[in-house]
Amino acid sequence: EVRQLATRTQEATLNIQPLLQRFRQTTEQTVQLTREGQALSREGTQAVTSVRESFSQVNEALDRISSMSVQISSAMEQQGQVAEDLNRQVMRIADASRHSAAKALDGRRISEE
């Protein structure tokens, strides 16, 4: 009876060894996959950080463009006002020239009489 128990124990031990080997392999694979997952997670985090920084730079560029557009618009408005002022002054000069020409013509007529 003791021999039978010893034999069965030996058989059970032989049967358990492959199971333990598979368990070890599975555990090692799990550890390896966990490490790979952590590495991928770090890479993903770095990619998200990089994208966030890129969006921040784009926002800053858009803010600068918006500010420049406001400045350009203001400058164009000022130039428009200057152009209107110049136009009014040219019209005054033209009126004064016509008036002077008319007076000169009147003076000539008077001197001819």
List keywords for this structure.
single chain, 113 residues, mainly alpha, 1 helix, 0% strand
Description:
The chain has one helix at 2-112. It is mostly helical and 113 residues long. The longest helix is centred in the middle third of the chain and has 111 residues, at 2-112. The mean pLDDT is 95.
Outline the fold blueprint.
Layout: H1 2-112
Binned strand content? under 5%
Tell me the Rg in angstroms: 48 Å
Largest sheet: none
If you average the pLDDT, what whole number results? Answer: 95
User: Residue share in helices?
Assistant: over 70%
Structural class: mainly alpha
| Distance between the amino and carboxyl termini | 164 Å
Give the CA-based shape: rod-shaped
Low-confidence stretches: none
Number of strands: 0
Q: How many helical stretches?
A: 1
Topology order in helix (H) and strand (E) letters:
H
In oligomeric terms, what are we looking at?
A: single chain
Protein name: Methyl-accepting chemotaxis sensory transducer
Keywords: Cell membrane, Membrane, Methylation, Transducer, Transmembrane, Transmembrane helix
Organism: Pseudomonas syringae pv. actinidiae ICMP 18807
Subcellular location: Cell membrane
TL;DR?
With 113 residues, the chain is mostly helical.
